[in-house]
Amino acid sequence: MKKKFFELIMLIGLLFTALPFSQASAATNNTKATDTSLAKIQKKGVLVLGTSPDYAPYEFQTTKNGKSVDVGMDISIAKQIAKDLGVKLKIKNMDFDSLLVALQTGKVDMVMAGMNPTPSRRKSVTFSNVYYKGGQDIVINKKDAKLYTSKKSFEGKTVGAQTGTMQYNMAKKQIANVTVKGFDKGADLILALQTNKIDGIVMEKPSAEAYGKNNPQLSLVNGHFNLSSDETSSAIAFQKGATSLAGAVNKSLAKIQKKDLINKVYLKEAGSHMETNTVNTSMFHYWKYFAKGIGYTLLISAFSVFFGFILGTILAFMRLSRNKIFKAVATAYIEFVRGTPLMVQIMFVYFGIGLIINLPALTSGIIAVSLNSGAYVAEVIRGGINSVDKGQTEAARSLGLSKSGTMRYVILPQAIKNIWPALGNEFISLIKESSIVSIIGVTDLIYQLKIVQSDTYRGVAPIVVAMLLYFIVTFGLSKLLAYFEGRMKHAN
Ligand code: ARG
């Protein structure tokens, strides 16, 4: 027992000692990139932009020829920058609070997300010159317009802000006794406001105005926050020290500013996209989004079930074996995986392992979910095998059956009946739990649901659609599994 525990601690220890090393090597990569950042992009021929398209008019999505595309002033600016650099633009979408991690781990080359170049962010990334000045507002329900007139009227109340944003910190600091609730997406914030979970939303002025314009039940309050100039500005973030890239981008920005393209062209285009988004907000109109989402959810689940099953079987036999090392490794693995949340594992594979090999989000998602599922499947299989009475092995062995023969002809056929229903349970929960991959930007059903919410400015309808789709899939699967379970009974 003691030994087992010791081995487990060793394994965990190993994992954590390896981590700083991998980070150190990434850090040296960064310093090496100091002067070559621009050359590197030009050599690659692509500029990878990280953004969080839930922030009209900065960045949001719209449907063009049945496909979702990223639009907004940040996207227009990024396109111009890529054109000036003579490279292609590739856009990677993720939650706002993952963006700077993605930048530091080299998943993206630059971040544009209506981001304020605050002093604390400046410590870890390099910013371009300011390209736009916004300001901060508070969005409220129109019916409350008499109650709330400035930031002072929110004292002792609850306000919402996007997680990881400067607005979140500002609300906490500048409104006395306020409770600040963080949400990942702009659409979630609006929904929370409309269902009275929060009394107001602290939001960048242009974005607040966009929501106000598209939703007659909302109105805006001037927060009168004390703001430094950085806190009203937006700038582009690069890896710390990527000065050559930042310099080239600043040249593009200067050109854009000289022609006043942001006000004259980009914001106008964004405005017309916002109008098209609200013309037809029926869920049927968005069926392609949901279809794509469910497709990815099924894809991730199918792969993860497959790999999880193989890994689980191996682990189960390792744990059942007499070999002490096999046993210890399998036990340590299972305990560690079961003892940490899937969400953290997904971030570890994507961002952590990503420091060493740059895996795409979908692959990372499949790997993390499979690794996770393997631990649970192992226990299901082990439990099933253990549930077959020891007497059976003894009888089979004394009749002269070999060890593997006993397992194959006597134990497994009986064990499978106990394993099957539990395995079915595991697969059904895997379909639902795989939804966490949306945090790294995999376009699964949950991710698409959020996009439809922010496109249509409708909160509840997309949730209902996603719920129904999940149910149809899991119910279908459970019927299928029950069918096979029934057949196994007849086979008896
Ligand atoms: N300006 C705020 C910040 O930098 C919020 C930006 C949120 N952007 C987004 N695309 N959701 O903290």
Automatic annotation (TrEMBL):
Subcellular localization: Cell membrane
GO cellular component, as recorded: ATP-binding cassette (ABC) transporter complex
GO-annotated molecular function: transmembrane transporter activity
Bilayer topology: Multi-pass membrane protein
CDD domains tied to this protein: TM_PBP2
GO BP terms: amino acid transport
Protein name: ABC transmembrane type-1 domain-containing protein
Organism this protein belongs to: Pediococcus cellicola
Lineage: Bacteria, Bacillati, Bacillota, Bacilli, Lactobacillales
